[in-house]
Specification:
Elements (H helix, E strand, L loop, with lengths): L1 H15 L5 H46 L8 H14 L1 E6 L1 H10 L1 E6 L19 E7 L4 E8 L2 E7 L1 H4 L6 H46 L15 H47 L6 H32 L6 E4 H15 L4 E6 L3 E4 L1 H18 L3 E9 L2 E8 L21 H7 L5 H11 L3 E6 L5 E8 L5
Parallel strand pairs: 7-9
Antiparallel strand pairs: 1-5, 2-3, 3-4, 4-5, 6-8, 9-10, 10-12, 11-12
Helix pairs in contact: 2-6, 6-7, 7-8, 8-12, 9-10, 10-12
Length: about 475
């Protein structure tokens, strides 16, 4: 039994955490929106800084080219200045011809075009290279080094980032920065997910508690209440639920007191009437008074049956018995079939009963069988069939007759107390409309189902489906 409880709780927990629940939809939606926004902003920032780096590189390279304006190419002073600037800026500077510039343009990937104020003293770049701005190239596929071609005096300069600038001796700092950014993003994502999970989970728990309380109230546990110490507007829902439960409990209590009082108060005059009838039965009567005496006797029996049924219905509704025992349901139904066959000799009772032993309340099972079979015998034309079927951990009690049946529109109504669908026929068959109400109440207390369908015999068919507690 303990393992079944653990399995039940685990199943409920899994059900609450399925993607179809409101909690997970809300949680995933908010998390996805926030993380998606961060990713988009990060991409835009990366793009912005990448373009900013390109522009900064072009301006630095242009500044270096201007510093070389006062030196003549390929001289000792030129070489010294280029070496000094390379050490200072980390750039590789090379004096190239127009032909080499075109070849470089054709072989290397163009990354960006950066506009800078042109120097009128410089000659124009070759056709297609920097006509609308300075072209930024990817000099090396492996280390993403940048390069630009700038006019200088009568020639051209190819200025590149140096490998040392990107990968210094101390290690790949860019890679370390990249790992740090990944760690920071992961920390942000996890923090957002955790905060959202706690907040949304708190709301979800309150909703599930309200839902569980509603189910408990619907099952008849009218003393169910919920803690209204929760955020707005859920606390208003909890307070309204508690007020509703209190009102229902008070109303049911008043109905129970009234029904019990009526049933008990009926017993006193009934006992007196039965006493008087017993005394009168010793006297000599004519034919007329004898008929009246018989009618009075029948009326008192019916009133006593009514009082007993009302008390039984109230007892089952408000104090359902939890006493279970092993019951041979097959033997019980066979015995009740034989008993009803004696009571209704004009009705042919047939049975199709499987061998079933259940863990249940024997009195409740007998009340179900008695009320269903009695109802079928009263309304049948000539035949009633009772069945007991077992499959898996469930079993079915089926009672059907060849009477007029019950229309689909009246099948739910007939289970209510004091419901008689045909008043003229009820006067012939007797009854107060409590038998099926008692059956319905017992089935609900046993967490079963009751179905009303049309029988192959032509009349009504009642199907009671219950779970065998000994199988669970």
């Amino acid at each position: 039994m303990l393992s079944n409880n653990v399995f039940s709780k685990l199943k409920k927990c899994i059900h609450r955490h399925t993607p179809n629940t409101l909690f997970f939809k809300l949680y995933l939606s908010i998390t996805a929106i926030i993380i998606g926004s961060i990713v988009i902003v990060s991409l835009f920032m990366d793009y912005y800084y990448e373009n900013l780096d390109d522009a900064a590189f072009v301006h630095d390279a242009s500044f270096v080219a201007r510093l070389l304006d006062d030196f003549i190419e390929d001289t000792e002073r030129w070489n010294m200045e280029v070496d000094l600037l390379s050490r200072f800026t980390g750039f590789s500077i090379e004096n190239i011809s127009m032909k080499k510039a075109l070849q470089y343009h054709q072989k290397h990937e163009l990354l960006d075009v950066v506009d800078i104020p042109p120097n009128k003293n410089y000659p124009p770049l070759p056709a297609g290279i920097g006509k609308w701005g300075v072209y930024v190239y990817k000099h090396n596929e492996e280390d993403d080094r940048l390069a630009v071609i700038l006019p200088h005096n009568d020639g051209l300069l190819l200025i590149m980032d140096s490998t040392e600038a990107n990968l210094p001796i101390d290690g790949p700092e860019d890679w370390e920065d990249y790992d740090a950014e990944l760690f920071l993003l992961a920390f942000i994502f996890l923090s957002i997910a955790l905060v959202l999970y706690c907040s949304v989970r708190n709301i979800s728990n309150h909703v599930y508690r309200l839902s569980s309380a509603s189910l408990a109230l619907a099952s008849g546990q009218l003393d169910t209440r919920v803690n209204d110490k929760m955020p707005q507007p859920l606390n208003q829902m909890a307070a309204s639920f508690n007020e509703m439960a209190t009102s229902l409990q008070h109303s049911q209590h008043q109905q129970q007191v009234m029904a019990n009082a009526i049933a008990h108060e009926l017993r006193t005059p009934l006992t007196r009437i039965q006493l008087v009838m017993g005394l009168l039965s010793d006297e000599t009567h004519n034919e007329y008074t004898t008929a009246l005496h018989n009618d009075l006797s029948r009326y008192t029996v019916e009133m006593e049956a009514l009082a007993n049924d009302i008390l039984m219905l109230q007892t089952i509704e408000n104090n359902a018995s939890l006493i279970h025992q092993q019951v041979d349901l097959s033997a019980l139904m066979q015995a009740r079939k034989a008993e009803f066959q004696l009571q209704y000799p004009l009705v042919l009772l047939s049975a199709n009963i499987d061998s079933v032993r259940v863990d249940a309340n024997a009195r409740y099972l007998q009340l179900i069988v008695d009320n269903l079979v009695k109802n079928a015998c009263l309304y049948a034309d000539s035949a009633v069939n009772i069945s007991l079927q077992s499959y898996g951990e469930h079993y079915r009690i089926i009672v059907e007759d060849d009477g007029d049946g019950i229309s689909p529109q009246q099948r739910e109504q007939v289970l209510n107390a004091f419901t008689r669908l045909d008043n003229s026929r009820s006067r012939q068959t007797g009854g107060f409309g409590l038998g099926l109400a008692i059956v319905n109440t017992i089935v609900k207390s046993m967490h079963g189902d009751i179905l009303i369908e049309t029988s192959d015999l032509g009349g009504a068919m009642f199907i009671i489906e219950l779970k065998n507690a000994s199988q669970s």
